[in-house]
Amino acid sequence: MLENLSPTMFTAVALGVVMFVLFMFLPALLELIKPRDAGPRKIIEDTSGDRKLKITSMEETEEIEVDQAIVKRVSSILSVLPNLEA
Amino acid sequence: MTAYLCRHYFFTLKVLKDSGRQRKETRLESSIFQPSVSILIPAYNEELVIGRILQRMSELTYPSDKMKIVVINDASTDATGKIAKQYAETHSFIGVLHRNEQEGRRGKGAALNAGLKHAEGEIILCFDADYYPQRNIVEQLVRPFEDPKVGAVQGRVTVLNEPNNLVTRLVALERIGGYRVDQQARDGLGLITQFGGTVGGFKRSVLESLGGWDESILAEDTDLTFRVYLAGFEVRYVNNAECYEEAVENWRAYWKQRYRWSRGHMQCAFKHLSKVLRSTNLTVRQKIDAVLLLNVYFMPILVLLSWIIFVPLVFMNVRPGLGMGWAATSISAYSFVGNFAPFFEVAVGAYLDGRNRAHWLTSLLIFTFLYNIPICTKAFADLVVSKISGKKGARWDKTSHSGDGNSYIMN
Fold first, then answer.
1. How far A49 CA lies from chain B's nearest CA (Å)?
2. Strand, helix or coil at B270?
3. Which of B140, B160, B358 sits opposite A46 (nearest CB)?
4. To bridge B73 with a disulfide, which of A26, A41, B81, B354 should be the other Cys (CB 3.0-4.6 Å)?
5. Phi then psi for A61, rounded to 5 degrees?
6. Based on the structure, what is the number of domains in chain A?
């Protein structure tokens, strides 16, 4: 098969192969000579679960505060009730 | 090879399609599921790295009263046992199992089986000594076990010493393709998600019902993956459970590690292929994926065979069409199967990770691809010889670790 190629064809094929290899490896060579990738990858400390926990506890705190307000209001009402009876 | 190309093409599309959705799903998870956990850390001559992982274990956010760490000192001749003992003395949840020369050094599977006898948790997690996990990794890894169908779980492995040299950078690319795209897609598509032997674990009841690790298989992790699926359970992949590993740093260490993987994987293929095809617990899609997964390490041998057949045809000028077939095979082999993860998969993984130029090295994976051809061929030849001669298989050859990755953790 190779013998059937004319010298011009052979040169063209060889040049094509060289160009293909050069284009394929050029980005890799550039990155190897002057690395610009900030490796290693920083592992993600996914704290979505923790955040949820904090949100949950904040909600609970708010509920306690609301409960205390109601308790205060009810107690103030109750403190008036004996007076009403009187 | 076309089947592998299609498979990886679907995987890449699936991950690209789901990349936005998964982030939302993660944020919606709210359950607090805290089963008791035992973490097994097998270690043989790991004095350079054992302190690093034990220090990290002491920093995990999982409640220490629900967690027990078992270091299996597998008859080390260096200071591994001493360092582990020091940590055990200052942390009540760390224990050390010292194995003597008669019991130890029989491979990772044997060491893990020994550790399993001392593990009491509902969930058994495994970490290699050179690993360095994120602080909330246990929470992430146990979460899938809420589903009773889940028998095992796998987290993501990220290369720590990536900038060291060309080998570590190429291994990092393989890991990106293998975990960020391959494992993620298999999990999303309900195919065969692979337990990788570390950064993962099992429901204790499932592991015990399967009889623990098979000590005769070099790829004991792949073997357990298939046993879990054949028993009717699933393996889940958690991309958010990330852990650093120290990658091999030279071509010799790469050969040793990949030889063990390929030979072990081929053992699994011989052991499980017929069981997979006959299984009633696997779907048709899972069976197809399982067959492709089990045979993946035979692909480089097929590539070599095709070259051996076609190269003489080019020079003998038998038939020009056949000669061109050689060129087509070599190019397609490189692009379709690559180094077990086609290069577009690696590049998409790097893109999804937000890496700006890591994927520029993708073309250099041709060296690992070419290097894997003699590795897999030798592994296959040795396996056939050992089967015919009836001799015991290769011993479990551990990868040595230098602890060089520490500088990147400090940064």
1. 6
2. helix
3. B140
4. B81
5. -60, -45
6. 2
Q: What is the pLDDT of residues B352-386, one digit of tens each?
A: 888 888 888 988 888 888 899 999 999 999 999 99
Question: What residues form DSSP beta bridges with B43?
Answer: B73
pTM (predicted TM-score): 0.83
Residue in B121, B98, B297, B295 with CA at minimum distance from that of residue B205:
B121
ipTM above 0.85, yes or no: no
* Structural domain harbouring A72: 57-86
Burial class (CB within 10 angstroms; exposed 0-12, middle 13-18, buried 19+) of B89: exposed
Which H or E run contains B178? none
Which site among A24, A41, A55, A60 would you substitute to test the B interface, given the most B Cβ atoms closer than 10 Å to its Cβ?
Answer: A41
Using DSSP's 3-state secondary structure scheme, residue B75 falls into coil
Nearest to B355 among A4, A30, A37 (CB): A37
Residue A31 pLDDT greater than 80, yes or no: yes
Judging contacts by C-beta atoms under 8 Å, the chain A residues touching residue B344 are none
CA distance B207 to chain A (A): 28
Which tokens in the block code for residue B272? 């499980």
Token readout for B48 is 């350079």
- Asked if residue A48 belongs to a domain, the reply is no
Q: Does B315 touch chain A (CB under 8 A)?
A: yes
H runs (alpha helix) in B317-364: 320-336, 343-352
All structural domains of chain B, each given as residue ranges with its CATH number in brackets, are 10-15+33-249+260-288 (3.90.550.10), 294-396 (no CATH)
Q: At what angle do helices B299-316 and B320-336 cross, to 10 degrees?
A: 150
**Closest alpha carbon within chain A to B156:** A43
**Residue B269, CA distances (Å) to B235, B285, B290 in order:** 18, 18, 9
Dist. CA B232–CA B282, nearest whole Å:
7
Helices within B119-214 (DSSP H only) = 137-142, 166-175, 184-188, 204-209
**Shortest distance, CA A71 to any CA of chain B (angstroms):** 31
